[in-house]
């Protein structure tokens, strides 16, 4: 008798609001993942930089080794506890003498399924609006990453990676049906591009696209757009 | 003394309404191109199928050889008369035993600069909404086409070609600054994708994108969306 596999599943995006206290950031993220799972989510994503304020000044202070740091250990235990596929948004990762913007993914058994380092660093200068240079502090990843679930294959990107249709097309060609981009667009790029890019990636590649943002904090040095969303290709 | 080249130019999109009378379609298109030129347009585009109603039943009746047919001869003379770069939307082209959806471009001297045959035929079946199968009658082109002006290089696509970021990316890689897509989206794909795709191609490739549609005719068998537009990458 063949195993019956459900054709649908519930994906939750956790739009948490990281502050300066890492322990509290992890606690709040965990509470929200538990809430999502208790409401039936089988796959949960956290946003970019869920354990740290977003900003180049913060990355050296908040970075950790992966998987042997507090944040990643928490993700593994939380995935196992909630029996979810947990897409760990991103954290600043310390690896050798470099810092990466890194997403790790854990399965319902707590095992790590993927480690993705942001490929396209966010170096932007819109005069009078916003200037931000991730590459001052971060190093770029080198490798696209997918992971499998019983429903379909997922492709991973982080934030500015969504600006590049080539990465999404590569995942489509590898058979991904869902692309997940933890992100933190801002008050300039958010209204200009956030929804546009999510819809474009979905229509271009005929995949579901999930953009999971941190919440907006107008007192932060970098004010995020928020507006987490999932787009259907249809 | 170096020749001074203007950094800006005026591009006009002619949103004409082709009916069943080919002679009148050509006359009306010519009037509108003259009007655009008299208002300062230096580059003018006509829409897809500007000499014919849009529909597989019409293509065999309205098709012509290019450049030795009435429609293409008119385009050449009109470009010379108005001293414009004239992007001839598209017409059904008879070539050997096949029919193509073909755009020809003429320079201000009346010489042909490009011949582009639609690469991605529009075969669509949205149950209860719209079914259309260009490939019942048309053959696909095989080659992207660009042309040069004193301002920049242009890339050509027709309608459904805009759904494919790879073609736009190829033109971007070849140095195009403007992509022109004569088109005729319909009342299903128009609201869903017309503006989205124009904006996506512009943001993805950092180029200007022009979508030139026929006008809406609610009595036609194929009702076009209209909404010609030009999108800035900024």
From TrEMBL, chains A, B:
<dbReference type="GO" id="GO:0006107">
    <property type="term" value="P:oxaloacetate metabolic process"/>
</dbReference>
<keyword id="KW-0378">Hydrolase</keyword>
<dbReference type="InterPro" id="IPR036526">
    <property type="entry name" value="C-N_Hydrolase_sf"/>
</dbReference>
<dbReference type="GO" id="GO:0005739">
    <property type="term" value="C:mitochondrion"/>
</dbReference>
<dbReference type="Pfam" id="PF00795">
    <property type="entry name" value="CN_hydrolase"/>
</dbReference>
<dbReference type="GO" id="GO:0050152">
    <property type="term" value="F:omega-amidase activity"/>
</dbReference>
<protein>
    <recommendedName>
        <fullName>omega-amidase</fullName>
        <ecNumber>3.5.1.3</ecNumber>
    </recommendedName>
</protein>
<dbReference type="GO" id="GO:0006541">
    <property type="term" value="P:glutamine metabolic process"/>
</dbReference>
<dbReference type="InterPro" id="IPR003010">
    <property type="entry name" value="C-N_Hydrolase"/>
</dbReference>
<feature type="domain" description="CN hydrolase">
    <location>
        <begin position="9"/>
        <end position="234"/>
    </location>
</feature>
<dbReference type="GO" id="GO:0006528">
    <property type="term" value="P:asparagine metabolic process"/>
</dbReference>
<dbReference type="InterPro" id="IPR045254">
    <property type="entry name" value="Nit1/2_C-N_Hydrolase"/>
</dbReference>
């Amino acid at each position: 008798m063949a195993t019956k596999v459900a054709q649908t599943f519930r994906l939750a995006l956790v739009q948490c609001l990281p502050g300066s206290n890492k322990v509290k950031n992890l606690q709040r993220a965990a509470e929200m993942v538990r809430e999502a799972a208790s409401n039936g989510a089988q796959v949960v994503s956290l946003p970019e930089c869920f354990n740290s304020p977003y900003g180049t000044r913060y990355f050296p202070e908040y970075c950790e080794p992966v998987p042997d740091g507090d944040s990643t250990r928490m993700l593994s235990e939380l995935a196992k506890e909630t029996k979810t596929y947990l897409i760990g948004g991103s954290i600043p990762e310390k690896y050798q003498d470099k810092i990466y913007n890194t997403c790790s993914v854990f399965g319902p058994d707590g095992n790590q399924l993927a480690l993705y380092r942001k490929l396209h660093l966010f170096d932007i200068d819109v005069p009078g609006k916003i200037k931000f240079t991730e590459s001052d502090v971060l190093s770029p990843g080198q490798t696209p990453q997918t992971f499998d679930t019983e429903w379909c294959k997922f492709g991973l990107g982080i934030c500015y990676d969504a600006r590049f249709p080539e990465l999404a097309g590569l995942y489509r060609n590898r058979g991904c049906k869902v692309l997940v981009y933890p992100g933190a667009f801002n008050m300039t790029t958010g209204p200009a591009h956030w929804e546009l890019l999510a819809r474009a990636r979905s229509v271009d590649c005929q995949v579901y696209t999930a953009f999971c943002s941190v919440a907006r904090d107008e007192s932060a040095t970098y004010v995020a757009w928020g507006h987490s969303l999932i787009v259907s290709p249809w």
